[in-house]
Specification:
Blueprint: E1 7-10, H1 16-27, E2 31-36, H2 39-51, E3 55-60, H3 66-79, E4 85-88, H4 106-121, H5 123-128, E5 132-136, H6 159-180, E6 186-191, H7 205-214, H8 218-230, E7 241-243, E8 246-247, H9 257-271
Helix pairs in contact: 1-2, 1-8, 3-4, 4-6, 4-9, 6-9
């Protein structure tokens, strides 16, 4: 699909899937808003896109901090009346728990709160373009559980428990966005495959070595999110979960409207 004249926001574009995906979108003609934690983190993707003759801009945004997400989103919305796709790709698996200065578990903040807030803050330009929201989730969500009374897991933290909860919540929110924006903005989530990226940056070095050796490459991992954001045959398809390119049934709780509404209210209360 020729993406000339289209604008796409890619989070987590400093490395891995996000960087490869941002470059791929730009090579097909899209103007890419490159989102990473700092100007320095944005620079490699920005330089690669511009060296190839593509169009891009950098918007630094720390996804662990809601204030930073709000600031970056306001900057994007002020510059772009239309957004054709938002790919919420930034993700975190934290081996040790960190509570952010705003009081949130970092995994919960990066993987759930930030993509929801960013989607909410950019919904008007997405509506204007009848755009697509693509949330990079994980099949790990299938074994997840929402800890309703303690989403920050202050009393029961483990890396996998936090990651699974955050991706389950993201998958559930995707379906709710699809319902609320029916006929205007589409929203889908996906599992990109197990990819050797900076998601595992907090793992011991010897584990990182085997991850990078045995898992899918970032180039391969980027393909599903780019496909969901651009494939003409997916026009109007919404509220789905994909394992790479194949639709798959999500966790059972994601199919329960009462649970999705409860989660929406919980997250909305947090992000404001």
């Amino acid at each position: 699909m020729d993406l000339k004249g289209k604008t796409v926001v890619m989070t987590g574009a400093g490395s891995g899937i996000g960087r490869v995906g941002a470059v791929a979108l730009a090579k097909r003609g899209a103007h890419v808003v490159v989102v990473a934690r700092s100007e320095d983190r944005c620079k490699p993707a920005l330089d690669e896109i511009k060296a190839a003759g593509g169009s891009a801009e950098a918007v630094p945004m720390d996804m662990a901090l809601l204030a930073s997400v709000r600031e970056g989103a306001a900057r994007i919305a002020a510059s772009h009346g239309q957004l054709h796709a938002l790919i919420n790709n930034a993700g975190l698996w934290a081996e040790k728990q960190t509570i952010t200065p705003e009081g949130h578990d970092e995994t919960w903040a990066v993987n759930t709160l930030a993509p929801h807030l960013l989607t909410k803050a950019l919904i008007e330009p997405l509506r204007a373009a009848k755009g697509r929201v693509v949330n990079v989730s994980s099949e790990e969500h299938l074994n997840g559980h929402i800890h309703w009374d303690d989403p920050n897991l202050k009393g029961a933290y483990s890396p996998r428990r936090a990651y699974r909860q955050s991706k389950l919540a993201l998958t559930m929110l995707s379906i709710t966005w699809a319902e609320r924006e029916a006929g205007v903005v589409t929203a889908n989530s996906l599992h990109p495959g197990i990819v050797g990226t900076n998601l595992f940056r907090n793992f011991p070095k010897f584990i990182q070595f085997w991850i990078n050796l045995l898992m899918r490459s970032p180039a391969d991992g980027a393909k599903p999110s780019v496909w969901l954001a651009t494939e003409p045959k997916l026009e109007g398809v919404t509220g789905k979960f994909y394992s790479r390119f194949k639709e798959r049934r999500p966790h059972g709780i994601a199919l329960l409207k009462d649970s999705r509404d409860r989660l929406w209210d919980l997250v909305e209360k947090i992000v404001g």
